[in-house]
Amino acid sequence: MNSKVGAVSSNGVYAFTKPNRESIRLLAGLGVEGDVHAGTTVKHRSRVAQDPTQPNLRQVHLIHQELFTELREAGFEVGAGDLGENITTVGLDLLALPTGTLLRLGDEAVVEVTGLRNPCLQIDAFRPGLLKRVVHRDDEGSLVRKAGIMGIVVSGGVVRPGDPIEAEPPHGPHRPLDRV
């Protein structure tokens, strides 16, 4: 299956969910135009409290639509934008991508993958019990995070549902994703 954008979402105010849009504009070095998490330094409240001068490695949040199918099968009604992501993807194993992968979205936009989203307790406030579905320990005891990935905008451009996505892994040794 060809990878594509399933939905795009943004919100100009702090809220857990983000409304779906007809399109979003990615701004190089900043993130999603008009989104509360756009900027060169951290915008997520927990990160700002730790050190507001940290670089913003979480400018764009992407989640694979296949996660929503898995969650629905477990009894959780969750859709595009509900978990605060900006871009919902279809047909791309986001969690298997190495750090530094370039995602070409549509005609112009490029996002560099920086790491895994580290979901917080707000997920359980949205849907009780959901956090255990998106963060759990595997059979070896390793922590598994499935709530999407984060990235920074390398090249700006408009992104719309239906746009193709091309993943270009980095050169050299691949580093697995870690939380950012």
From TrEMBL:
Pfam families: MOSC (PF03473). It comes from Streptomyces nitrosporeus. It comes from the Bacteria. Residues 161-180 are annotated as: Disordered. Residues 168-180 have a biased composition (Basic and acidic residues). InterPro entries: MoCF_Sase_C, MOSC_domain, Pyrv_Knase-like_insert_dom_sf. GO terms for molecular function: catalytic activity; molybdenum ion binding; pyridoxal phosphate binding. This is MOSC domain-containing protein. Residues 18-168 form the MOSC domain.
